[in-house]
């Protein structure tokens, strides 16, 4: 594998983060991509699309702030971000989830693993919904 990830992949990811969850570039992902976050674990780009679709239907005013993106190994991109969104409750609580993603690329420069880590607990997020 090359020692450098194609800069076009990184630029496309930047664009995807900027318009998240709309018009994501699913062609960046391998068909059997492995996804994991504090709430989900599954494989397949189709399941990944459905999860993003659920977020866009369930939550409002979704904004993904990308703080940094870098190639950390010859086959790994690491991003740091904050996901902000409004939960569908009568009092419209605003949620803020800071975290990072580790995106592992295969030899074809497709994302074969997408692992999200939150810088807060699931309880912290729940407390944002119901108050502190």
Number of helices: 3
User: Could you give the order of the helices and strands?
Assistant: HEEHEEEEH
**Order of adjacent strands in the largest pleated sheet:** 2-1-6-5-4-3
Biggest sheet features: 6 strands, mixed
Low-confidence stretches: none
Beta fraction: 35-45%
**Helical fraction:** 25-40%
Structural class, by secondary structure, is alpha+beta
Average pLDDT value?
A: 95
Fold and architecture overview:
The chain has a 6-stranded mixed β-sheet. With 132 residues, it is an alpha+beta fold. The chain has helices at residues 7-19, 45-58, 122-130, and strands spanning 29-36, 41-43, 60-73, 76-86, 94-105, 111-118. A hairpin with a 4-residue loop joins strand 1 and strand 2. The protein is built from 3 helices and 6 strands; from the N terminus they run αββαββββα. The model has no long low-confidence stretch (mean pLDDT 95).
Short recap of the structure:
It is built from three helices and six strands; from the N terminus they run H-E-E-H-E-E-E-E-H. The protein has 132 residues and is of the alpha+beta class.
